[in-house]
Amino acid sequence: MLENLSKKIKQLNNKQKIIVLIVGFILAIIVLLFLYKIFYVEDEELIIENNQENFTNISEETNEIEAKESKIGIKENKKTVTVHVIGEVNSPGVVTLEEGSRIIDAINMAGGKTEEADLTKVNLAYVIEDGVQIYIPSISETSKISKEEEKIEYIIDGPGEGIVMSSASQEKEEEKQVMININTANVEKLQTLPGIGESIASKIIEYREQNGKFKTIEDLKNVSGIGESKFSNIKDKITV
Question: Please, which of 110, 119, 174, 194 could form a disulfide with 85 given CB 3.0 to 4.6 Å?
Fold first, then answer.
């Protein structure tokens, strides 16, 4: 077959041979274009589709990560307080709550009250401060308290201090008096000290915020308005 085709081509004149070559060249180009479209263009479109799909997946994953980081950032920005809950609760121990939480929240975080707990003697709406210890009394314990005595506050002013108990009896009040922690007490509590008014109490808070916690009670004399005389009147009633 190829020999016959070769003989026929040889029989053609020059002009006819040129036409055959041109036609053959055109056909070759058409075949190449056809093959290009089938193999290269379709592969390129597939690559573009895959890239678009991958980009979409990456964008979605990035959005999810940013959303999680945003949530984490919000949580980290929330201030917390840590308190020690003891007494008639199911899981006594140290718990951490959001700033502004109340005693009832601390009780719930400590597993809730026991059957023996007497919450009538506790101010459940009290806003707790960082570092305090909360004591939940039992019914048998509170039943021993004289009816003439005032309601007991079962909250400690600061770490390692005794229970604050208000009593109509001056002797019992002196026996159960709690030292005021000048590192944790607020303005109202500081004003319970003799000779400390709102102005000086505010100065104590301001000094504490600017210079850090007091290392000794004598450091209180560094606060403007507290001289040796005023310090002598309160030194037995304060702690750090």
Answer: 110
What is the pLDDT confidence band of residue 72, given thresholds at 50, 70 and 90? low
pLDDT of residue 162: 37
What pTM does this model have? 0.37
DSSP 31-93: HHHHHHIIIIIHHHHHHHHHHHHHHHHHHHHHHHHHHHHHHHHHHHHS-EEEEEEEESBSS-E
Looking at the fold, whether 94 and 167 belong to one and the same domain comes out as yes
Measure the CA–CA gap between 161 and 64, rounded to whole angstroms. 47
Domain of 209 in residue numbering reads as 179-240
From CA 63, how far away is CA 58, in angstroms rounded? 9
Give the end of a domain, one of 128, 158, 176. Answer: 176
Closest by CA position to 163, among listed 191, 192, 134: 134
Distance CA 202, CA 225 (A): 11
pLDDT-derived band at 5 (thresholds 50, 70, 90) equals low
In whole angstroms, what is the distance from residue 146 CA to residue 168 CA?
A: 10
Which of 176, 209, 225 is at the close of a domain?
Answer: 176
| Burial class for 121, CB neighbours closer than 10 Å (0-12, 13-18, 19+) | middle
Q: Are residues 84 and 167 in the same domain?
A: yes
